[in-house]
């Protein structure tokens, strides 16, 4: 899995497992008892969430959400998506919406002032500042993902042990 060359902020993987969902869940329960201090485990229905344990957790530590879908031939289709802590992801998305909303507001104000032949340099300046902030948010997310790449690989190998 190429984590560093992927442009996505939340890398994904999809694969088939020869196990049924029941076999995957029993393997999950076995691994959960042995690795409970190093990793954080949660499950609900056909969803499994894996995270880094509290003693090893950092600001940029990733989590892995695995979704299981069964096929008639007994195989299981596994979809996984990496991401930051859900609260951190919510804050990150909220910041994007705020910056995007302010960009639209200043764009409307700048257009209104332009049509009324009033000076709109402040509004255009704010739009450029908001664009720079938007890019900075993206690069901060890329840096955090790069810092968490080793832990992502650990979570991926743990998930592979569960589903393979």
From TrEMBL:
Q: Which UniProt keywords apply?
A: Membrane, Transmembrane, Transmembrane helix
Tell me the organism.
Flavobacterium lindanitolerans
The highest taxon in the source lineage is Bacteria
Protein name as annotated = GTP-binding protein
Question: What are the TM regions of this chain, as residue ranges?
Answer: 87-112, 124-143
């Amino acid at each position: 899995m190429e984590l560093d060359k992927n442009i996505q902020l939340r890398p994904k993987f999809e694969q088939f497992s020869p196990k049924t969902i029941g076999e995957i869940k029993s393997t999950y329960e076995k691994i959960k008892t042995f690795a409970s201090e190093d990793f954080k485990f949660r499950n609900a229905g056909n969803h499994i969430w894996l995270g880094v344990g509290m003693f090893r957790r950092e600001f940029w530590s990733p989590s892995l959400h695995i979704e299981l879908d069964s096929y008639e031939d007994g195989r299981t289709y596994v979809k996984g998506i990496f991401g930051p802590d859900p609260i951190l992801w919510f804050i990150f998305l909220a910041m994007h919406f705020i910056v995007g909303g302010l960009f639209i507001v200043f764009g409307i104000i700048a257009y209104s002032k332009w049509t009324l032949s009033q000076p709109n340099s402040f509004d255009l300046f704010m739009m450029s500042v908001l664009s720079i902030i938007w890019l900075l948010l993206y690069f901060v997310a890329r840096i955090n993902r790069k810092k968490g790449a080793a832990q992502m690989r650990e979570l991926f190998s743990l998930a592979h042990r569960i589903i393979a």
